[in-house]
Design brief:
- Pfam families: PIG-L.
- This is GlcNAc-PI de-N-acetylase.
- By secondary structure, the protein is α/β, with parallel strands linked by helices.
- It has a single domain (24-231), classed as 3-Layer(aba) Sandwich (Rossmann fold).
- Helices cover 34% and strands 23% of the residues.
- The protein has seven helices and ten strands.
- The chain has helices spanning 38-49, 68-78, 99-109, 131-145, 182-195, 203-207, 220-231; strands at residues 11-12, 28-33, 54-61, 82-88, 114-120, 150-157, 159-160, 169-170, 176-179, 211-217.
- The protein has an eight-stranded mixed β-sheet with strand order 1-9-10-6-5-2-3-4, with helices on both faces. Strands 7-8 form a two-stranded antiparallel ribbon.
- 43% of the residues are buried.
Length: 232
């Protein structure tokens, strides 16, 4: 596991984020993603650079996938994290899911409703487009707003692909904008290609960001406004 010397090397886009919640060791952090590999793609570097926290990672889909499920748990070991998986529909058709169904699975998978930080998908997604990403981000914000999960801060992934014009990249104006040390990115890339088994020239490998970014919310009403803006 990496030394703690990597921690705290944030490039901050807003002054309010300078005292990052992750500078204090021993935080309880939940990462809530739609698929096994999302945890690595969108915040794997963050997790690797902050090994002194209690990371709990849940994937809402693919629990019954005999290929992806064991790979997810192997990545959790590499990240020194624990976690769980759900089995929401993840068919190529991307039929919309009921919000209450997504919320139910999140609450069932979380070991507690209290966290210092929750990190999840942005309700606008990370690329054009995947309904499960959007539904996950929306459900987490709604749960926080209704006090069904309690947290100090919420971070949502901050990436865009220009409407499929290019591979997803970190949004420079995001609250937290973090270029990754080369060794950290190489570890992420190995998780994607050597553990998850995606081809080096394929979408997932080419997408693997060298910079990670997050929108930061301290109040549920702020996140709710963000959600409504993304849905308008």
């Amino acid at each position: 596991m990496l030394s703690k010397g990597f921690a705290g090397n944030f490039i901050i886009s807003d002054v309010g984020a300078m005292n990052s919640i992750l500078t204090i060791p021993g935080r309880k952090v939940a990462v809530i993603v739609a698929h096994p590999d999302d945890e690595t793609l969108w915040c794997g570097g963050l997790i690797l650079m902050h090994p002194g926290h209690h990371w709990y990672i849940i994937s809402l889909c693919r629990k019954s996938d005999p290929d992806r499920a064991p790979k997810f748990h192997k990545v959790l070991e590499k990240l020194n994290a624990t976690g769980a998986m759900g089995d929401l529909d993840d068919s190529p058709e991307q039929f919309p899911l009921e919000e209450k169904e997504v919320k139910k699975v999140i609450l069932e998978l979380l070991p507690s409703q209290n966290f210092d930080l929750v990190i999840t998908h942005d309700p606008s997604g990370e690329y054009t487009r995947h309904k499960r990403h959007e539904e996950t981000g929306s459900a987490v914000i709604q749960l926080w707003n209704k006090n069904e999960i309690r947290l100090t801060e919420l971070w949502t992934f901050a990436y865009e692909d220009g409407g499929k014009m290019y591979f997803s990249k970190a949004i420079e104006s995001a609250s937290i904008f973090q270029p990754l040390p080369e060794k950290i990115w190489e570890m992420k890339f190995k998780f994607i290609t050597e553990i998850y088994g995606f081809e080096p020239g394929g979408f997932e490998a080419e997408t693997t960001p060298k910079t990670e970014a997050f929108w930061r919310f301290k109040k549920p009403e702020e996140a709710l406004k963000w959600l409504k803006r993304s849905q308008s």
